[in-house]
Amino acid sequence: MGEIVEIESLFNYAMKGQWREVLEVYKNNPRALEAKVTKAEDTVLHIAVYVGQANFLTTLLENINEYVSLAILNTPNSMGNTPLHLAAELGNVEICNTIAKRDPKLILCQNFEGETPLYLAAIHGSKDAFFCLHGHLQNKHDCSPCIKTNGDTILHSTISNECFGLALQIIRLYPNLADALNQDGSSPLHILAMKPNCFQSSTRMEFLDRIIYNCLLVEELKEEIEEDQTIATKDSKAGTDADEESLPRSCRTNFERAHKEKKLHRFPPNWEVFIRFLIIMMKALLILFGVGASWIDKIQRKKEKHMWAKKVMDELIMRASLYKYDYSGNSSFDLQHDHDIEKRVEKKKRVSPILIAAKTGVNEMVEKILDTFPVAIHDVDSDNKNVVLLAIENRQPRVYKLLTKRNLVKESAFRHIDSQGNSALHLAAAYRNHKPWLVPGAAMQMQWEYKWYKLVKNSVPPNFYARYNNKGQTAKQVFINSHELLVKEGRKWLSKTSDSCTLVAALVATVAFTTSTAIPGGASEETGVPVLNGQLAFKVFALASLVALCSSVTALVLFLSILTSRFQEKDVAMHLPKKLLLGMTSLWTSIASILISFCAGHYFIIEDGMKSSVYLIYGVTCLPVSFFVLVQLPLYLDLMLAIFRKVPQRVYKVISH
Where does the PGG domain start and stop, copy by copy (predicted)? Predict the structure, then answer.
């Protein structure tokens, strides 16, 4: 009964932060600290780590014998986490250092998920804690603490969590991890290929964002891993001889020294002050206009992420041995669970990273792999699709453009056929439901689908035009069948838009006709010449009314021609959007001309004393039309881009696998 009371008192003291009382309980009962005091089976030491009580932990370990301290530190909770697991996950370097010095073997201890403290520090991006624990490792070339039971390594996880600065240093510390496979057969390069948002080529930015992006200076941190490893080794040997109040130098992240030696890129050194001044001024202007400097900071972080992701990619490709024959017959990553992982991977065809990059649109990776391993162009997936077919099927214009510039690719890869007998043209003709193009409306989606089909058609040999797949379909038949629903939706959208615009154009044409036949001030009875002829306002009225009549009639004819169209695939894709664009241009011109002619005609009936102030009224009268134009401007610009742009612009999203 007394022991239960002590455990309850331990829980209450820990919850209230009364750590001195916890020490008093321990003095009365040394085994009390091993007791589980929460439903999660946490000990008092777990709770102390949760709340960051480094002083309590240090004092406690100093006042108990080594046997008891090892027992307490090795006590797991319901998740199998020791206090060191929690300290590593939270990134508490001081506690990590204290526990690791007392029992370095805890760094190798796995929880029920197969995660070591070193692994948890890495996947949570706790750089300082990671290097602290790495410094205490007795065998720094042992990769076992870096691997989870499912085969995921710290490199897989840090790349997945986009901690690229830490991932780059992990590659230098554990080069064997660069080729490590998890139970799904994925290497770190596979994981990186699935993150197109981390690369510039797959990141969409507005015009102003791109300007700022290209002007920003990215400070590259200098890595000095070898020196830090030497320091870490010396500190770990020093062990308990070091001062308890100071941390070993291995616990300091590599970035501390690197921040002192920053290297600026993209501009000559003498431009540094000037560029920084421009950035400060830009931030000040943004604050004045209510935008805030966070906008530039966001672009800065995006550029830094792109830079570090590319560095990680370069390192992984440089160390990859995907295409090198292994004469030893063993995997390049020799671990205890390698055999089990290889057996799982053999059950399904392993997808090459270049194929994933082509599918997700990571242009940088496709280019780098082809430059390093030209044989990668022959890689195929389980459906016998190579890099060209996957880029075309997933509508990746930048990857496609890169591949067309390589003669070797055009001579061989573009002639490849998948397991269903589909050529590149068949895959370009097939439409899926994920709407890849960055345009609204079914009609413009159809327009860019047709452009993509024509673009690919010009790249494949002519004898592929009439080629049949395993279903007995040509590429043209595939295009017609797969785009049938899109054509119907496009027809409905074009008809609805044209119908609405036809009504407005008819009203404007009626008003324009009436206005053009009216003569402000009347005509001379003797000569029939307008009385106000020769005045500037009358000339403006005459010209504006004529333009309004002609443009409104033109718009009416164009919209009627859309409504009476056959709505074939090519009509919906090319001809009708052009007519809609011209019709909208004519309609806006007619509305603007009607307003100008009204203001010019009204000018003659205003008293001379009020003419100086009437311009403001005319400006206010034009505001509704200006608002209408601004609302319709995005649609207008999308139509223009879809018509005049040769290669469509892709919507970049993470593709699930």
Answer: 492-604
* Structural tokens at position 474: 């040509």
Summary mean pLDDT of the chain: 78
User: CA nearest 135: which of 259, 228, 254, 21?
Assistant: 228
Q: Calculate mean pLDDT across residues 427-439.
A: 79
DSSP letter at 618 equals H
Q: Is the model more confident about 94 or about 227?
A: 94
Q: Which two tokens stand for residue 638?
A: 């999308």
d(CA 619, CA 516): 22
What's the rounded Cα separation, in Å, for the pair 70 and 25? 19
* Nearest in space to 154 (alpha carbons), one of 128, 185, 116: 116
HEC secondary structure over 444-467: HHHHHHHHHHHHHHCCCCHHHCCC
State the pTM of this model: 0.76
DSSP string, 501-517: HHHHHHHHHHHHHHHHH
Same domain membership, residue 517 and residue 386: no
> 504 and 466 in one domain?
no
pLDDT score for 314 = 93
Domain that holds residue 444: 344-485
Distances 22 to 6, 28, 73, 211, 597 between C-alpha atoms, Å: 10, 10, 16, 60, 90
Confidence (pLDDT) at 522: 61
For position 476, which CATH number holds? 1.25.40.20
